[in-house]
Amino acid sequence: MEAPLDIIRAVRQQMGSELVILTHHYQRPDVVSCGDFLGDSFVLAREAARSKARVIVFCGVHFMGEAARILARPDQEVYMPDPGAGCPMADMADSDDVAVALERLADLAPGRRIVPVAYINSSAATKAIVGRAGGLCCTSSNARAAVVEALRLGDLVLFLPDEFLGTNTAHLLGQPVVPVYDPHAAANSPAGACGGLRKADIDGARVIVWKGYCHVHTWFSPDMVTAVRSKHPGCRVVVHPECRPEVVALADGSGSTAWLVDEVLRAGPGSTTVIGTEINLIQRLARELPDRTILPLASSLCPNMYRTTSTRLARLLQGFPAQNRLSVDPSVAADARLALDRMLALA
Ligand code: 13P
Ligand code: SF4
Prior knowledge:
CATH topology of the largest domain: Rossmann fold
CATH class of the largest domain: Alpha Beta
Number of helices: 18
Strand content: 15-25%
Bound molecules: 1,3-dihydroxyacetonephosphate, iron/sulfur cluster
């Protein structure tokens, strides 16, 4: 039986510029080695929007492939080696719940225009609700710019689905009060309240965050930062902004996966960098840069990213089966695209 990497190499050679393979920083090393572009969610979404290839293969999780499908031209085909690789955080903001939240919050904040900001880690249906409401998408690399833009467009931002990226971003913008909207409390809210919030809770706020999280990043604790600093004096600790605010506050900096990679490159030979994010990115950097010390804050793996293997990628490239092809309902895609395009237009 031919080895997966040989199959992938042969198909890439045969298809040439007709095929582009996009890989996220959390992918397994053998999958990363097969990609044309490696990046964070923003870089890969932008690449999908720019690509001229007839076939785009996305090695990441479903919301990333779906965003690529929405941004690509209709005559391009978008595939994933495992379309079942989801993101639990994206599933935490159901589109119907988001529509209800926008309606109820409008009642709770009369006279204030609410502009939703959807983290790219959300479904196409949720992005469509946000696009229709005049809102925009963001990734971890432009969340700050997106919230600034939303505040320019309106008075109050509903940031979803990540409570912690939303809260960390609001803190960066000098907003200390960040109420949390809990979609599970929405159904049982008494009159004059919604999602566990009352009018008084949101009166002084500019940003409301949705109660959602990424288990890969909420695993990191302030104690872990303290422990690593005493074990490696002088180390630099950098984390992804999906971490809890208490962890971000103790770290030396936070940013997207691409920013974390850049930080390690900037730190230079002989440096020690401790990173709070998914383990595959950290292990790959440590292997590629043996002249510096690169350590995980703790080992935390995204099981969904891990579902994409070189064997699955090879199987996809051998026949491009219909079940691996992504499609989004055209009316949903059109509204979701509004939100994605507003993000791509950010400076
Ligand atoms: P980035 O946009 O920073 O790559 O993050 C994506 C993600 O899913 C982090 O958990
Ligand atoms: Fe989703 Fe977290 Fe995995 Fe990122 S690391 S894809 S947010 S589950």
